[in-house]
Design brief:
160 residues; mainly alpha; 2 domains; 7 helices; elongated; transmembrane helix; membrane
Length: 160
């Protein structure tokens, strides 16, 4: 048990290796593109030109706000009249669910009816078997009802 404490999962090793490879890739890209030098240069310019930096920042934010408002509210009048066009019709889904529920209810009623028929056959079979004197027709009825009862029991077992 003590040996397991020092083992790492394979998943943890793979994750740490993947993050290490990703960090190396990012570091190489930053060195290649001289990101650190460019950021330092941009910060130096921003410190020297505070007013211009503020104007550029506010201008970019305002521009994105105007574009967003235009894209949101500047659509055609046809699309604004019926804003539900992007919503998928759900009525067929509800109809399908209702059909499934109806099929389940029908299946349950069929199983219940089969169980009731099996119970009545069992009672008839018991009464025929209890008869002290049986005719040939009674024996035939016993065999027929027994086969029917067997079929019903097998169908009920398959359904469950």
């Amino acid at each position: 048990m003590a040996m397991r404490l020092f083992r790492k999962d394979k998943k943890a090793k793979k994750e740490s290796r993947a993050t290490r490879c990703f960090r190396i890739l990012l570091w190489r890209l930053f060195v290649k593109w001289k990101v650190r030098e460019r950021v330092a240069k941009a910060n130096k310019w921003a410190d020297a030109n505070r007013g211009d930096t503020m104007l550029i920042t506010v201008g970019c934010l305002l521009f994105s706000l105007i574009i967003g408002a235009f894209l949101t509210f500047g659509t055609d009048s046809d699309k604004t009249d019926n804003f539900m066009t992007g919503v998928e019709p759900v009525e067929p889904m509800f109809i399908g669910m209702q059909q499934i529920q109806n099929a389940k209810a029908y299946q349950v009623s069929q199983v219940e009816e089969m169980a009731r028929k099996g119970q009545t056959l069992k009672h008839e079979l018991d009464s025929l078997v209890r008869m002290p004197r049986k005719t040939h027709d009674d024996s035939l009825q016993i065999v027929i009802k027994y086969k029917q009862l067997e079929l019903i029991v097998n169908n009920l077992e398959k359904g469950q």
